[in-house]
Amino acid sequence: MRQAGRQPLLRGLVLAGGRSQRMGRDKAGIRIDGTTLLERTIALLDGLVASTSVSVRPDQVDEQLRSRFPLLLDTGVGLGPADGLRAAYLCDPAAAWLVLACDMPGLDRPAIEALVAARDPARAATSWRSPVSGLPEPLCAIWEPATLARLSSLVAAAGRPVSPRALLAESDTLLLDAPRPAALLNLNTPAELERYRKERHGHQPQEKPDDAQAEP
Fold it and tell me: Mean pLDDT in the chain?
């Protein structure tokens, strides 16, 4: 049993193991204002977590951009974001993990600070509410150890993509309303990237997101 007043250590995880097939190029290396999306996302966690790791596929270990940072290897092939989450759990099962996809350029430091400040370790997770579905946004959330343990077991048993969003939706997740809904919208296609660069306020959400299949 955890001692009163103690809470699991908070670590950071940036998901950057996707194949970016719809974008047609590596999303982690896309530059916004001169900084890659991966570098920008890692910087958002600076000082808010005990450590930050980048989730990657085994074939990305020697890639120039990713290899500059501490890496966690995905534990499966083609299992989506759940792969990276499970890798984080196996790395430190006692820790909570602040998980960020690397393809949300609208995220800013105040949003991450607000998420950390609102964290309730007694809940399954602390997450922003998706502006698309009203469901938890699992790729900008704090996952507590017990919830990661459950996800890890599901992935190991299923051997196929498991939806992190569905797991948080059926759990005791603390949901927060995003101050800027556009901050939670990710970039998946060249058209969305171009629209973001023109508008600087994000892009219109997809009607039917599927976080179990989409890769960051």
Answer: 85
